[in-house]
């Protein structure tokens, strides 16, 4: 099993940091965005962005053509 690249790890940590560590910065009722308090809007937005970051991480770390991730016998 190969180790993930640094770029893939960073892309995975971006949504985690945005949700866990920035909420206290945006802990306000106003402004209202689409009828929601900004804090709630921020969390929903990152819930929708997270799969995009995970997909980009997967594409970045996916084996390229010509790379072999297993031995000739099929064992790792």
List the helices and strands and how they pair.
Blueprint: H1 6-20, E1 32-33, E2 36-37, H2 38-61
Antiparallel strand pairs: 1-2
Helix pairs in contact: 1-2
Account of the protein in words:
The protein has 76 residues and is mainly α. It has one domain (6-61). The chain has 2 helices and 2 strands; from the N terminus they run αββα. It has a two-stranded antiparallel ribbon. The longest helix is centred in the middle third of the chain and has 24 residues, at 38-61. It is elongated and about 55 Å long. The model has no long low-confidence stretch (mean pLDDT 81).
Distance from first to last alpha carbon = 7 Å
Oligomer: single chain
Shape descriptor reads elongated
Number of helices: 2
| Strand content range | 5-15%
Query: Structural class, please?
Result: mainly alpha
- Average pLDDT, rounded to a whole number, is 81
Strand order of the largest sheet: 1-2
In helices, the fraction of residues equals 40-55%
Number of strands: 2
- Determine Rg (CA atoms, Å): 18 Å
**Low-confidence region ranges:** none
Question: Largest beta sheet, briefly?
Answer: 2 strands, antiparallel
Number of domains: 1
SSE pattern, N- to C-terminal: HEEH
In short:
The protein is mainly α and about 80 residues long. Helices cover about 50% and strands about 5% of the residues. It has one domain (about 5-60).
Attribute tags:
single chain; 76 residues; mainly alpha; two-stranded antiparallel ribbon; 51% helix; elongated
């Amino acid at each position: 099993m190969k180790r993930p690249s640094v770029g893939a790890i960073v892309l995975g940590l971006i949504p985690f940091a945005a949700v866990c560590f920035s909420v206290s910065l945006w802990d306000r009722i106003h402004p209202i965005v689409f009828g929601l308090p900004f804090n709630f809007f921020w969390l929903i937005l990152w819930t929708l962005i997270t799969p995009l970051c995970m997909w980009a991480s997967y594409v970045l770390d996916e084996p390229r053509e010509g790379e072999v991730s297993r031995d000739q016998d099929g064992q790792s």
